[in-house]
UniProtKB/TrEMBL annotation:
InterPro entries: ATAP (IPR016092), ATAP_core_dom (IPR000361), Fe-S_cluster_asmbl/transfer (IPR050322), HesB-like_dom_sf (IPR035903), SufA_proteobacteria (IPR011298). One of its GO terms (cellular component) is cytoplasm. GO terms for biological process: iron-sulfur cluster assembly. PANTHER family: IRON-SULFUR CLUSTER ASSEMBLY 1 HOMOLOG, MITOCHONDRIAL (PTHR10072:SF41), IRON-SULFUR CLUSTER ASSEMBLY PROTEIN (PTHR10072). It comes from Phreatobacter aquaticus. Residues 2-102 form the Core domain. Belongs to the HesB/IscA family. This is Fe-S cluster assembly scaffold SufA. Gene3D superfamilies: HesB-like domain. GO terms for molecular function: 2 iron, 2 sulfur cluster binding. It comes from the Bacteria.
Length: 117
């Protein structure tokens, strides 16, 4: 998993403004929404026991162990338009999304993706 410059800058700004003890951003997926899965993010002091730790552009990402195969090759971006600012996941494993953009359908990475980060 990697970050765009905009996403890294935004995560750093949010971390700087949060309470002390934030070690990184934990990213995962959970079941939910009309398409089946939703991305999750939370600031945490340290990774959970089996989290994959990735550092990109000065940001520590802790990838939930249950989500690693769903997030291989994913790029997280931060976009701003006239009505909203949000994090966007550009995930090659995503097979579809709901119309409102709140949930996605994601397949585990194929064996040839296992070398990708």
């Amino acid at each position: 998993m990697r970050l765009t410059d905009a996403a890294a800058d935004r995560v750093k700004a949010l971390m700087a403004g949060s309470a002390t003890g934030v070690g990184g951003l934990r990213v995962g997926v959970k079941k939910g929404g009309c398409a089946g899965m939703e991305y999750t993010m939370e600031f945490v002091a340290e990774p959970a026991r089996f989290d994959e730790v990735v550092e990109d552009k000065g940001v520590k990402l802790f990838i939930d162990a249950k989500a690693v195969l769903y997030l291989l090759g994913t790029e997280m971006d931060f976009v701003t338009d006239k009505l909203a600012s949000k994090f966007v996941f550009n995930n090659p494993n995503q097979t579809s999304a709901c119309g409102c953009g709140e949930s996605v359908e994601i397949a585990p990475a194929k064996p040839e993706m296992l070398g990708a980060g």
